[in-house]
Amino acid sequence: MGSALKQTMSNDKGNSNQPYILGHSDHELNRLRAQARFLEPDTRQFLLDAGVKRGMRILDVGSGAGEVAFLAAELVGEAGIVLGTDKAPAAVAAATQAAQNRGFSNIQFLEGNPAEMTFETRFDAVIGRYVLPFQDEPSAMLRGLAKHLDHSGLLIFHEPDWTCVRSFPPAPLYDRACRWISDTTQLSGQSWNFLEKAHTIFVGADLPAPTMRMHTFIAGDFNTREWLIAVGDIVESLLPAMVRLGVATVEEVNIWTFRDRLLQDVTSNRSVIVGRSEIGIWTTIGRDATQKTAASDCEHPDSASL
C-alpha cells in the first residue's frame, strides 16, 4: 500500500502532554496483545454496528500493537485500506512487524498524532480503542480527526469505564486492585471512567450527538480467570505509577504472587465479579458537520489544525 502520509505537523496540540501512563515496554505491548483477544468481540461488534464494511478506508488512532488495525483490515477486506498511527516508535515498529508476519498487504503504520497530520486521501472511518481517556483535550483531538473524513464518514471509539466494577460476595483483593487501578488513573489525569464524559466530549467537538453502547464483563467463580489475569497484567503495567503516586507499595502488591492470590481470593469466596465496562461511541460526520469543525478550529487556535 502506498504511503498515505503527505505531511506531519510539528505541533502536538489536542493530544496528551503527559506520558502515557502504561508505557510501551515489551510487557505492555504483550499485555495489549493479550487484552486484544479479550476485547475483540466487543470492538468487532461496535465497528459493525457503526457501519464499517468491506472496501472502506480506515484511519486507526493510537494503534499500539496493531490489533484494532488488524481487525479493521479483516472487516474492510483487500479492497479496503487501513492506516494505523501511534506516537510511540516502539509501537509502530512492533505493529509493522506483526502486520508483515501476518501477511497483511492493506495496512501501513506511521508514527505521529493523526490529528496533526495531513494525508493524501480522506477516510471513510476514523477508529480507536482506549485512546480518548489519555488526551488532555479529547474534544480538540476529535475535531482534528474529523477533518480527515469523507462525506458521511464515521468516528468510532471503544473506550473503558471502571465505575461498575465490584464483587459479591466481596472478594477483598479484587475490590482493592480495582481501586488501585481507578485511583492511579484518576490521579494521573488519565481516568478510565469514561462513560460520564463520552457524550460531552463528542458534542464539545461540535460533532453530532453520538450513538453509545455498553458491554460489561460479569462472571462467577472459575469463569473469572481470563478477566482476573487481565487485571493482574494491568496492575503490573501500572505498578510504577501506583508507587510514584502513593496508591500502593511494591510490597503491598507483591506482583510475583499477585495473580495467584487474586484467583484464590475470588474462587475461595465463590464471588461473582463485575469487571470493566466497554463503551462503544460513534457518530456520522456529514458535510455540514465537517465544515463546522473546521470553522471551530479557526475560532479556537489552541485546537488541532492541519
From TrEMBL:
Any one GO molecular-function label of the UniProt entry: methyltransferase activity
Family matches, as CDD domains: AdoMet_MTases (cd02440)
Protein name in the entry: Putative methyltransferase YcgJ
Gene it is expressed from: ycgJ
Keywords per UniProt: Methyltransferase, Transferase
Coiled-coil region list: none
Compositionally skewed regions (Polar residues) per UniProt: 1-19
SUPFAM superfamilies: S-adenosyl-L-methionine-dependent methyltransferases
Methyltransferase domain segment(s): 53-161
Biological process, per Gene Ontology: methylation
UniProt xrefs under Pfam families: Methyltransf_31
EC code: 2.1.1.-
Disordered as annotated region, ranges: 1-20
